Records
---
Amino acid sequence: MATRRVPPSTPTPGELTRFNPSEWAAPGETSWQLGFSRWKAARRAWIDQHPDSTLGDLIDVLRVNLLTLQELERWRPSPPQGAVMLVPQPYPPADTRS
C-alpha cells in the first residue's frame, strides 16, 4: 500500500545531516571521536523532538551513524590504543593457616 509522506514541519539543520569534525570539535580536542559522539546525541535528540524529520526514524539514524563511522575510520583512523594484557594474572597463594 502506497502512502504519501508528509513534508517535515521544521527543516533539519544542515550540521545534523552530515558529520563535519570541525563543527563538533571542542577546543583542544585532537580526535574526531568526542565530536562524533556529540553529533550522534544531537541527531537522536532531534528525531525525538521532530518525528517527521528528514533524518527518518531511529533505524535510519543508526544506519547513517554506522556508515559515517566506517567512513571516518577508513579516512581518519582512531589513534592507537594502549596494550592489552592477554595473559591472566596468577592467583595469589592460598592461605595455609588452617
Note: DSSP finds four helices and no strands in the chain.
---
Amino acid sequence: MYSPAMIIVTSHINELQAEAAANRLAKKAPRARGERSGRAMASLRSLLDSQAPIALPKLTNYPYRS
C-alpha cells in the first residue's frame, strides 16, 4: 500500500523529469530569430555605421561641476 507522501513525491519526481526532458528538447531546437530583435539589431547597426558623430550637449551651466 502506498502512503499519500509517496504518491506526492513520485508525482513531483515525474514532473521534474518531464520538465528536464522538455528543457533538453528545447536546447536542441534551433532558435528562431524574432522580427523584433532583428529590427532592433538593424537599427543599432545603422546607428553605429553612420559617419556623423553623435552630438553631445555641453554642460556649461551645470550647477554641480567640480
Note: The CA atoms of residues 21 and 27 lie 10 Å apart.
